[in-house]
TrEMBL record:
It comes from Dyadobacter helix. Belongs to the LpxC family. This is Multifunctional fusion protein. It catalyses: a UDP-3-O-[(3R)-3-hydroxyacyl]-N-acetyl-alpha-D-glucosamine + H2O = a UDP-3-O-[(3R)-3-hydroxyacyl]-alpha-D-glucosamine + acetate; a (3R)-hydroxyacyl-[ACP] = a (2E)-enoyl-[ACP] + H2O. Keywords: Cytoplasm, Hydrolase, Lipid A biosynthesis, Lipid biosynthesis, Lipid metabolism, Lyase, Metal-binding, Zinc. InterPro entries: FabA_FabZ, FabZ, HotDog_dom_sf, Ribosomal_Su5_D2-typ_SF, UDP-acyl_GlcNac_deAcase, UDP-acyl_GlcNac_deAcase_C, UDP-acyl_N-AcGlcN_deAcase_N. Pathway: Glycolipid biosynthesis; lipid IV(A) biosynthesis; lipid IV(A) from (3R)-3-hydroxytetradecanoyl-[acyl-carrier-protein] and UDP-N-acetyl-alpha-D-glucosamine: step 2/6. NCBIfam families: lpxC (TIGR00325), PRK00006.1 (NF000582), PRK13188.1 (NF009667). GO terms for molecular function: (3R)-hydroxyacyl-[acyl-carrier-protein] dehydratase activity; metal ion binding; UDP-3-O-acyl-N-acetylglucosamine deacetylase activity.
Length: 463
């Protein structure tokens, strides 16, 4: 999985009919800056409102995932989002001149091809992964659906579907490497059972559906007169069915388990609404949009709680700033230069590393025989980490002094001893105004929270 965020090199458009609304629309993917995420924009509406691709904005799950914000609604977002996730593209503005992305052939492949044609561009910011820290479970007994997310330092998905059908037996599909999405999953088309068609039309859905953008599974006996009715329903001069295939108009499947693969595609798209790339093993039994969104909400709730959002430190990876580069930014020197490495840095957050050794001068007098790192120095190390974030937010950091001017909600949770490696993460909690900025900071040892505080810093111009 990629370490850096990505966008596209240029804008690219696709045009087609929406599956459920039946409205023809043009969808344009537009490059976006780091940390922008996925946002839809209804350019056909007054003021061209923005809709964040966020699980909190889901308003309807009738045969697709619909989101709404700022008075604008976007239908059936899952195939579009799956294409972006599958190509590991993080930041895109998706402009629409209608209420629904084009269904195209019922899969994500046309979107994938368009995005590849536009070019994928690496950005100077790290991906903000959320590593699922514990077992997360969603179950709906009535619909017999069950999904779980398990801890894993990668992103893998497995889906099982079983429709109790003579035409489609139980199917499984897996994706163990996201880079295989284009070849193994993207071209798998949406599907519907024949017995569902009439009901869906009566529900004012699938207005744009026909045999070019969906697989229709014939799961019962069909009379000749009914075939004529179906041809009118689907705007086709004639429809037929080969009983040996069980698919209307005898459409060839791309894969024997295309239905399970498409359900996996939907799952990837729906989980994109979490708002961050995740690392987890996802297991799904008979998933649907409601279940997918249910799991996404549980994972987002876990993110909001702060549980599991612990920075990971791999000493084998090159740091963003080493000790010498830190010295070029911060004026602190031995014995008061408290940070050894900066291992992550973007516009809103920074992660620093402090290696605690018995050679620290303060251990000579701080609890001899039971050396414990003073809490005030843990706070200082956290503040210096935040100072890096503050200084790198201005174009001319050499011209400023960063001062800590306020501390609130400071807590020390566990003792820090020689031999510990403390990982500090600081994040802006408000934009900088007149040189004043607020941050939250946390320190971890072996994944355990040891200290935390809210801080206020001031950038003062050097004379």
């Amino acid at each position: 999985m990629n370490e850096k965020q990505q966008t596209i090199s240029k804008s690219v458009s696709v045009t087609g009919v929406g599956l459920h609304t039946g409205v023809v629309a043009t969808m344009t993917f537009v490059p976006a800056p780091a940390n922008h995420g996925y946002k839809f924009q209804r350019v056909d509406l007054p003021d061209q409102p923005i809709v964040d691709a966020d699980v909190d904005n889901v308003v309807d799950l009738s045969r697709g995932t619909t989101i709404e914000q700022n008075g604008a609604r976007i239908h059936t977002v899952e195939h579009t989002l799956a294409a972006l996730v599958g190509l590991q593209i993080d930041n895109v503005l998706i402009q629409l001149d209608g209420p629904e992305p084009p269904i195209m052939d019922g899969s994500s492949i046309r979107f994938v091809d368009a995005l590849i044609d536009a070019g994928i561009e690496e950005q100077n910011a790290y991906r903000n992964y959320f590593e699922v820290p514990e077992y997360v479970h969603y179950k709906n007994k009535e619909k017999d659906t069950e999904l779980v997310a398990l801890p894993l330092s990668d992103y893998r998905l497995t889906v099982m579907v079983d429709y109790n059908s003579k035409v489609i037996s139980s199917q499984h599909a897996s994706l163990n490497d996201i880079t295989l999405f284009k070849d193994d999953i993207a071209a798998c088309r949406t599907f519907v059972f024949l017995h569902e068609l009439e009901a869906l039309y009566k529900q004012n859905l699938i207005k744009g559906g026909d045999l070019t953008n969906a697989i229709v599974i014939v799961d019962r006996e069909v009379e000749d007169g009914e075939l004529d009715h179906l041809s009118q329903l689907l705007n086709k001069p004639k429809v037929s069915v080969d009983k040996s295939k069980g698919i209307l108009n005898n459409v060839d499947l791309h894969y024997s388990n295309e239905m399970a693969r498409h359900k996996l595609l939907d799952l990837i798209g729906d989980l994109a609404l979490i708002g961050r790339p995740i690392k987890a093993q996802i297991l799904a039994a008979r998933p649907g949009h409601a279940a997918n969104v249910g799991l996404a909400k549980k994972i987002k709730k876990l993110i909001k709680s702060g549980k599991g959002d612990i920075p990971q430190y791999d000493p084998k990876k090159a740091p963003i700033f080493d000790i010498n580069q830190i010295g070029q930014l911060l004026a602190h020197r031995y014995p008061f230069q408290m940070i050894d490495k900066i291992i992550a840095l973007d516009e809103n957050s920074v992660v620093g590393v402090k290696n605690v050794t018995i050679n620290e001068q303060y251990f000579l007098g701080h609890f001899p025989g039971n050396p414990v790192m003073p809490g005030v120095l843990q706070l200082e190390a956290m503040a210096q980490t935040g100072g890096i974030l503050v200084l790198t937010s201005v174009p001319d950091p050499d011209n400023y002094w960063p001062y800590l001017i306020g501390i609130d909600a400071c807590r020390f949770r566990r003792n820090v001893f020689p031999g510990d490696t403390v990982i500090f993460k600081c994040e802006f909690t408000s934009p900088m105004k007149r040189g004043i900025v607020k941050m939250s900071g946390r320190g971890y040892v072996s994944g355990q929270l040891v200290c935390e505080a809210d801080m206020i810093a001031s950038l003062v111009k050097k004379k």
